[in-house]
């Protein structure tokens, strides 16, 4: 999952109401514009922050891949300078009940802005030359916390690493061909993204992120300990096979860059990960509390088949 920031300018109403973002393929003089090309780099499940009139007014989830599309007719005169063919990305927008004003938070936001193609200037004003900007995860987490969208369960989700779309479709086909009830099949599939019955079962076992202490459930991911792709259907829904983790911690755990011993001691694969944890205010050694007997069974699998596999090869980001 990646985070993006779109500067709508005059097209905010059309794009949010229509459920999309759209850009031409290049500048009016034919030159390349990376912030237009960025539309082709988006993928389903990515998060987009909508900025217009100096505020973030909406947060959206990308529904499907970018496609070549005709310029929306509703742009009217606002789109006169753009070519008729461009890039379109469908988005499920949620309009925020309380818009966020980035300029009020520049002490935190400024150091997290991208060095090139930034959506904001350092003074907090929008960058008029930037349409769609890629932003780092830390800024995405911060903006999500500020925005507090109601559909956080569809925004803060666990997209398990190391599984291709073809593999996922094959597993889902196998689930649909199994003898379990239809409602159970739906819950097993939802568990792929840490949602539904699985998330509720994890919340019964875990009350907060053990590493950061965050206890607001809407900001936490229900992450599988034994990966969904290799679990049985019952394991995919077992609350003991999950932890509630802050998004940045979930990424480390899901990739196998960190794991836990049965007594709660955290271990990492490298000094680079130790340094990243330290930058987040998590200094090793750290103990997150002991786990139940059932949880330790899943943790043993994670250490042997996820963490140890990463230790045998270089860490790549």
Describe this structure in words.
The protein has 317 residues and is of the alpha+beta class. The protein folds into 2 domains: 3-154, ph1033 like fold; 161-311, no CATH class. The chain has helices at residues 12-18, 34-37, 106-109, 137-147, 152-155, 165-177, 182-190, 196-205, 233-237, 247-254, 271-279, 293-311, and strands spanning 3-7, 20-24, 47-52, 55-62, 67-70, 85-100, 132-135, 221-224, 242-245, 258-260, 266-268. The strands form 3 sheets. Strands 1, 2, 3, 4, 5, 6 and 7 form a 7-stranded mixed β-sheet that branches. A two-stranded antiparallel sheet has the order 8-9. Strand 3 and strand 4 form a beta hairpin. The longest helix has 19 residues, at 293-311. It is globular.
Helical/strand content category: alpha+beta
Number of domains: 2
Oligomer: single chain
CATH superfamily of the largest domain: ph1033 like domains
User: What integer value in Å does the Rg equal?
Assistant: 21 Å
Kindly state the percentage of residues in helix.
25-40%
State the order of secondary-structure elements, H for helix, E for strand: EHEHEEEEHEHHHHHEHEHEEHH
Strand content: 15-25%
Our measurement of the CA-to-CA distance between the termini, rounded to an integer number of angstroms, reads 14 Å
Poorly predicted spans: none
Major sheet, described briefly? 7 strands, mixed
Number of strands: 11
Mean pLDDT: 83
By CATH reckoning, the class of the largest domain would read Alpha Beta
DSSP summary: helix tally: 12
- Give me the CATH architecture of the largest domain, please: Roll
